[in-house]
Every structure is written in structure tokens, then in C-alpha cells.
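Title: Comparing notes on inverse folding

I've been comparing how different people in this forum approach sequence design from structure. To keep things fair, I'm posting one structure and asking everyone to reply with a full sequence. Here's the target:
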């Protein structure tokens, strides 16, 4: 079953995706990479197998940020599929309450 996420989360992921175009991926494994920013020396370690990024946005917001999105899209994955199950549970709870 494909993840079902709310419009607000989709909008956040889409915004982060648009901002991810200026990053470069240095893949260090199947699910790991170092993401480098264009024009600066900033680097972010991303591990999509455990939903983590060194910027900590992924861990705090429970959705991938531009660094993780850049890795995901570079390997042909949909970032929306990497949103936390907690977000999905909240949405299903809303659906059930409306029924």
C-alpha cells in the first residue's frame, strides 16, 4: 500500500524538492550519502535507511528535507514514501474520526 499523506505534508515535501536542485550527491552506500551545497562548503550526512540527516530536520519534522530528498530522487525514489508512519497514523486517525 502506498503512503497516504495530507496536503500540508505534500506541500512541504514539494517545497523542499524544489530547493534540492542546488545540491550534489556523493553516495557512500546504498542508503547513505553526503550532500554538498553548491557554492558553500556545507555538507550533510544522510541515511535514508534510518530516516536521518545531520541537519536534524528529518528527525524533528518526520519528513525528508531537501538533503534527504536530493538523495532519494537521485536514486529514483519518491520522497513522499519516506514520511514517518506517525504522520500516516495521524491522518488515518482523522479519517476514522470522520467516519
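Reply #1:
Here's my take.
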Amino acid at each position: 500500500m502506498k503512503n497516504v499523506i495530507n496536503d500540508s505534508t505534500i506541500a512541504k515535501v514539494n517545497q523542499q524538492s524544489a530547493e534540492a536542485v542546488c545540491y550534489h550527491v556523493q553516495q557512500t552506500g546504498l542508503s547513505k550519502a553526503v550532500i554538498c551545497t553548491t557554492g558553500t562548503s556545507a555538507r550533510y550526512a544522510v541515511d535514508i535507511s534510518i530516516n536521518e540527516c545531520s541537519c536534524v530536520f528529518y528527525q524533528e519534522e518526520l519528513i525528508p528535507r531537501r538533503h534527504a530528498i536530493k538523495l532519494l530522487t537521485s536514486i529514483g525514489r519518491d520522497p513522499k514514501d519516506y514520511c514517518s508512519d506517525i504522520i500516516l497514523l495521524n491522518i488515518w486517525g482523522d479519517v476514522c474520526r470522520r467516519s
